[in-house]
Amino acid sequence: MSNHDERWEVNRERDAVAAPFESNLPKKGALGEALAPVAGFGVTLRNFFKPVVTEQYPYKKTPPMPRYHGRHQLNRHPDGLEKCIGCELCAWACPADAIYVEADSNTPDAQFSPGERYGRVYQINYLRCIFCGLCIEACPTRALTMTNEYELAGPTREGLIFEKQDLLAPMGANMLAAPHPMVPGTTDGSYYRGEVTGVVESQEAWVRENRPEDPTLPENVAAASGAGGAGAGGAGAGGAGAGAAGTGASATGASATGTDGVSPATASGTVTNAATPRGDA
């Protein structure tokens, strides 16, 4: 046996001897040793006599923290154009492969976002999403952000694959729905720097010429608001009419009843179904 083998033989003999375990924690006294079996129930015993708090969800919902990672949202510029440019960086950054993006080119007749491209197809599979937020960190235009919405359960798997129309932010006040041209004299950089603050007349004229029925045009918004107000006013007038009719009927009944609660017509025997006086009911 060589020296090398002898050395390893010695190490094997040494390693075969199990050294006794010695804890670095201070040793317990007699009382501590006696209570050691139930020491693990300390947290349970401390909370055993506290009042039980039952969450009343969904009737009472606790608001999440401001930076809570909830459902995603595709944002818009102040004039209504979409911020997403279809770069697919969010899809590349997603560790769960939950985002699918297809880009397309903007044209003069179909300008959906500033610049050359926009996201024609945008899907987020919430069966895969882990809400890590890496996608919003990768977005160069702040098109993708995360809201505080956390109620994302559904009865089907297909319903948890959100499409672009499900993720787009709602139209704000004085916005025009895309597509429509950019603000004249601006570039995509002007949009990214926040220099575009709203819709201009030329954009409204373009939408009015190409999509006169667009519900986001000012005249269509005013017409819809007027129709809603007229409907509500009509309902109120109907209620007022019914109230007036009821008041008139009550007044008529009161005038037809005598001071002693008996109708004069009943006394003469010509009416047999007169109202019963309240005192005799």
- The rounded Rg comes to 38 Å
- Given as residue ranges, the uncertain stretches (5+ residues, pLDDT < 50) are 242-281
Largest beta sheet: what is the strand line-up? 2-3-5
Major beta-sheet overview: 3 strands, antiparallel
Following the backbone from N to C, one meets helices and strands in this order, namely HHHEHEEHEEHHHHH
- Quote the beta fraction: 5-15%
The total beta strand count reads 5
The CA-CA distance between the termini, in Å, is 121 Å
Do you know the CATH architecture of one domain?
2-Layer Sandwich
CATH level-1 class of one domain? Alpha Beta
Tally the helices: what do you get? 10
What CATH calls the topology of one domain is Alpha-Beta Plaits
Question: Which structural class do you get from the secondary structure elements?
Answer: mainly alpha
The whole-number mean of residue pLDDT values reads: 82
How much helix is in the residues?
A: 25-40%
Q: Given the C-alpha coordinates, what overall shape results? A: elongated
